[in-house]
Amino acid sequence: MSLVRGIQTVTPLPLRVMVRENAGFSTTAEELSVLRRSASELASLGVDGIVVGFDRDGEPALDDVAQVLEAGPGLRATFHRAFERFREQERALDAICRIPQIDHILTSGGEGTALERSTHLAALTAHAAGRLRIIAGGGLDEESLSVFGATACVSEAHVGRAAREGGNPEGPVSAELVRRLRRIAETGNAEPA
Predict the structure, then answer these.
(1) I need a surface site. Which of 55, 80, 117, 144 has the fewest CB within 10 A?
(2) 125-147 residue pLDDT tens
(3) What local confidence, expressed as pLDDT, does residue 85 receive?
(4) What separation in angstroms does the CA of 118 have from each of 44, 88, 144, 149, 151?
(5) CA distance 120 to 125
(6) Which residues of 48-188 form beta strands (DSSP E)?
(7) Residue 192: C-alpha distances to residues 53, 64, 147, 158, 185 (Å)
(8) Which distant-in-sequence residues (6+ apart) come within 8 Å of 68 by Cβ?
(9) What domains can you pick out in the chain, each with its CATH number?
(10) Model confidence at 193, in pLDDT bands (50, 70, 90)?
């Protein structure tokens, strides 16, 4: 939690923290106990929210998500890319919307070209109908941000490697790359006007 406190001291931006105990999208009773403690601690730190999500056999494991959120009742939540494992995403989205704390879903928009992903993201955004927001994330690059911005399929995007020096997932975030990516998302052009 010291890292979270450190981040809070250097930026006024809303902070959502991923809570996860393994690299997959399932969890165990022991892991849920740890995640519940984390949610409680993060709520006490006043973060904006957490990023959490689980699947069970291609369906959202919302009982597990609800247990984590119950430990941080004031926290808002983003349902993360476990969403991509669901067989019927619109039905899953409807189920996720029944948990009031969840106000975002993070998804890449699936496989395919940036335009194909854009079409899928637009369909999800339309289906959400303002109940929550769809965030594009997962493998975003300059091309996909340009397409997503031009098609207005989403209003928010999450970038990882594209904002890091050398595209290294462990490398430092580059302020210049963030500015460039933002320009691309907003204008379709990487160069300042």
Answers:
(1) 55
(2) 999 999 999 999 998 999 999 99
(3) 93
(4) 37, 18, 8, 9, 7
(5) 9
(6) 49-52, 55-56, 59-60, 76-79, 102-107, 133-137, 156-158
(7) 37, 45, 18, 21, 12
(8) 19, 32, 35, 36, 39, 50, 52
(9) 1-75 (no CATH), 108-193 (3.20.20.380)
(10) low
User: In Å, what is the CA distance from 109 to each residue of 89, 164, 180?
Assistant: 11, 22, 22
Residues in the chain: 193
Q: Which helix (H) or strand (E) holds 184?
A: helix 175-187
Q: What is the pLDDT of residues 14-68, one digit of tens each?
A: 999 999 999 999 999 999 999 999 999 999 999 999 999 999 999 999 999 999 9
User: What amino acid is encoded at 13 in this protein?
Assistant: L
Structure tokens that stand for 27 in this block: 């969890």
Are 77 and 17 a contacting pair, CB within 8 Å?
Answer: no
Q: Which residues contact 20 (CB under 8 A, 6 or more apart)?
A: 35, 52
pTM as predicted: 0.93
- Average pLDDT value over all residues in the chain: 94
